[in-house]
């Protein structure tokens, strides 16, 4: 994007970067080898990136920025150069969220959605954050893919969840205890600034989705002089990161379930869950209760009351996926009725990943636990679960459950307090279940120079793929650098039948 001012000399880039990183024990000359490094660009070896003509490189960064002379790790980045060099406006970095999601190809996906001048005018930069994908990945050998599980229906289920989380945490300490404390958002933000210098840029431009908005907000707080234009889609309120952020998912998920239940009731002749939304809800809660008594067998997989709410949590998050959820629940209901069923389609994919994982998603837990502390008293979680059951019978025990952070070591740094006037464009869906609408409002509040684009009337996580109105506003901002004069409401695109 357009740079504000000439590119400074390399020595000034290095000095300015270190001054902004907030690590008093690291002298500028200790960081020189990272900020001045020359990287080797090669083919990425991934079909989508290679087809787009992108190249990849490994950037060396300190594991611990307070001790940069100690161990170093590598972060893999991708670059697809601007198609119109004469109109090049800078670099556009992108992160899809997670935390812990691979992002090497994410900038290309964003450019496909936006079109316009984005791929013509910007070098598109993707990256795998530290600990993820091709960036010194860390795994803990978990027997399940993720530590996010419902706590179940009673004390027995809660105790089972607590025991699982303790085991998962212990496995991570045993395998990565010396490394995992440094897999954090603040350190990833520092990595981004090294990437910026390696690319020879005075400022970066950034698009983040979901957790990627939190990473972007942290970067702007740590390196305010290094940002230009910022787009945050489905934002996280930094004041509620991370345990309250998860708790905020309960109410919109419960509301989204009712929307799906009304949709399913209208198609009772096809799916047979009930002719009214309350009847559909009763059918599904009955399945959870049955799974709590005895896991539901689907071929080689046992589906219990801890995992079934996770399937619902993902299934109700997008109106475009309602049919997929209905098909999956029909398989589960048939199996619960004693019909021999082998999971098929996306349900089989989900169960295979959740219960027979090739790789775990421990990096997500490392990031969350390394960023902000979680309560360690099990009774704190139990009280919140019990208090949530009346209003959130399906999702309350999920979003209030203990997780791996309950047993984690304390973070090495305090959470980042975000308060600045960065020129950010924030996009938020009112029906978002993963980053609740008030999350985007919260980020808008602490970024006093931001504008908020609200998308009503759609259950969705991610506004850019859902609204042509929003895409036009994003493209206009990326072209001109000028935010809308006021907050805006954008309607979603029509859903395909």
What labels describe this entry?
single chain; 497 residues; alpha/beta; Rossmann fold; ten-stranded mixed beta sheet; two-stranded antiparallel sheet; 20 helices; 12 strands; globular; disordered N terminus; hydrolase
What does this structure look like?
Strand 8 and strand 9 form a beta hairpin. The chain has a domain at 10-137 and 184-243 and 419-489: Rossmann fold (3-Layer(aba) Sandwich). The model is unreliable at 1-24 (pLDDT under 50). Helix content is 42%, strand content 13%. The strands form two sheets. A ten-stranded mixed sheet has the order 1-2-3-5-4-6-7-10-11-12, with helices on both faces. Strands 8-9 form a two-stranded antiparallel sheet. It has helices at 10-20, 28-35, 47-51, 106-114, 118-121, 155-176, 185-198, 211-222, 243-247, 250-265, 268-271, 277-293, 308-315, 322-336, 345-355, 362-371, 378-388, 396-399, 437-446, 468-480; strands at 42-43, 55-62, 72-80, 90-95, 122-127, 204-209, 227-233, 296-298, 301-303, 424-429, 451-455, 488-489. The relative contact order is 0.13. It is of the alpha/beta class. It is built from 20 helices and twelve strands. Helix 7 (185-198) packs across helix 8, helix 10 packs across helix 12 and helix 12 (277-293) packs across helix 14. GO terms for molecular function: hydrolase activity. This is Alpha/beta hydrolase. Pfam families: Abhydrolase_1 (PF00561), Abhydrolase_4 (PF08386).
């Amino acid at each position: 994007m357009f740079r504000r001012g000439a590119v400074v000399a390399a020595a000034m880039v290095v000095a300015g970067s270190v001054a902004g990183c907030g690590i008093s024990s690291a002298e500028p000359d200790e960081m020189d080898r990272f900020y001045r490094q020359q990287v080797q660009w090669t083919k990425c070896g991934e079909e989508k990136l290679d087809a787009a003509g992108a190249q990849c490189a490994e950037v060396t960064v300190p594991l611990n920025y307070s001790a940069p002379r100690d161990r170093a790790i590598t972060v893999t980045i991708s670059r697809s150069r601007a198609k119109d060099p004469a109109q090049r406006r800078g670099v556009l970095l992108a992160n899809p969220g997670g935390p812990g999601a691979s992002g090497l190809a994410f900038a290309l996906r964003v450019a496909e959605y936006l079109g316009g001048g984005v791929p013509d005018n910007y070098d598109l930069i993707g990256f795998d954050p530290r600990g993820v994908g091709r960036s010194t990945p860390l795994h803990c050998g978990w027997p399940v893919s993720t530590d996010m599980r419902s706590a179940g229906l009673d004390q027995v289920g809660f105790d089972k969840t607590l025991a699982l989380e303790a085991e998962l945490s212990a496995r991570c300490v045993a395998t990565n205890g010396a490394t995992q404390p440094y897999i954090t958002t603040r350190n990833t933000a520092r990595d981004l600034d090294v990437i910026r210098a390696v690319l020879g840029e005075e400022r970066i431009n950034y698009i983040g989705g979901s957790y990627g908005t939190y990473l972007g907000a942290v970067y702007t707080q740590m390196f305010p002089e290094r940002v230009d234009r910022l787009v945050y889609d489905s934002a996280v309120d930094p004041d509620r990161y991370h345990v309250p952020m998860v708790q905020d998912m309960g109410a919109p998920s419960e509301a989204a379930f009712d929307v799906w239940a009304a949709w399913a009731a209208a198609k009772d002749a096809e799916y047979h869950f009930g002719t009214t939304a309350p009847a559909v809800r009763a059918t599904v809660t009955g399945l959870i209760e049955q799974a709590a008594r005895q896991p539901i067998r689907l071929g080689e997989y046992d589906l219990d009351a801890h995992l079934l709410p996770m399937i619902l949590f993902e299934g109700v998050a997008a109106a475009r996926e309602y049919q997929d959820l209905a098909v999956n629940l029909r398989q589960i209901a048939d199996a619960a009725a004693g019909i021999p069923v082998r999971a098929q389609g996306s349900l089989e994919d989900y169960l295979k990943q959740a219960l027979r994982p090739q790789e775990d998603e421990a990096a997500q837990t490392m990031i969350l636990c390394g960023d902000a502390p979680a309560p360690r008293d099990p009774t704190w979680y139990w009280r919140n679960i019990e208090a949530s059951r009346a209003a959130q019978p399906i999702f309350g025990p999920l979003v209030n459950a203990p997780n791996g952070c309950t047993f984690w070591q304390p973070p090495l740094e305090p959470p980042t307090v975000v308060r600045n006037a960065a020129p950010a464009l924030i996009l938020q869906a009112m029906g978002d279940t993963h980053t609740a609408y008030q999350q985007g409002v919260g980020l808008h509040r602490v970024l006093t120079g931001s504008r908020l684009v609200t998308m009503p009337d759609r259950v969705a996580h991610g506004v850019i793929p859902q609204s042509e109105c929003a895409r036009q506003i994003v493209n206009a901002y990326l072209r001109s650098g000028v935010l809308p004069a006021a907050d805006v409401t954008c309607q979603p695109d029509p859903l395909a039948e």
